[in-house]
């Protein structure tokens, strides 16, 4: 039982590290692939924790519960950061789309071939 408790503590510590890694990736505006890796690793870790949890003795529960509470609070903050970042991305995509529509309208209005806009030698 004690071995399972130590293993659980290690897994919870790794989970907390992954949450921090996810927070850093969001702050750095890292590629989405990096976020997917971190999220995938967290999901695998959650499965390991769920497998180990029934074998842990009840005496040490309070320490795990406080650590788990901290992890969940960190997860909540990271989710809020992610929501803000995704909102910014949506806004940027919307602005790019509006710019594209404006260019298309300009070309239709002027009757100018699109290639002339990019290569004035034509």
TrEMBL record:
The keyword Cytoplasm applies. May act as an export chaperone for the filament capping protein FliD. It comes from the Bacteria. It holds the Pfam family FliT. It comes from Ammonifex degensii. It is found in: Cytoplasm, Cytosol. The keyword tRNA processing does not apply. Belongs to the bacillales FliT family. This is Flagellar protein FliT. Keywords: Bacterial flagellum biogenesis, Cell projection, Chaperone, Cilium, Cytoplasm, Flagellum.
């Amino acid at each position: 039982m004690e071995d399972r408790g130590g293993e659980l503590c290690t897994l919870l510590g790794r989970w907390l590290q992954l949450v921090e890694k996810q927070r850093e990736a969001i702050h750095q505006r890292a590629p989405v692939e990096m976020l997917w890796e971190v999220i995938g690793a967290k999901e695998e870790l959650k499965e390991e924790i769920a497998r180990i949890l029934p074998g842990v003795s009840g005496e040490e529960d309070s320490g795990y519960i406080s650590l788990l509470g901290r992890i969940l609070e960190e997860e909540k903050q990271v989710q809020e950061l992610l929501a803000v970042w995704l909102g910014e991305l949506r806004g940027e995509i919307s602005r790019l789309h509006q710019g594209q529509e404006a260019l298309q309208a300009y070309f239709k209005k002027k009757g100018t071939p699109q290639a002339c806009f990019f290569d004035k030698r034509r």
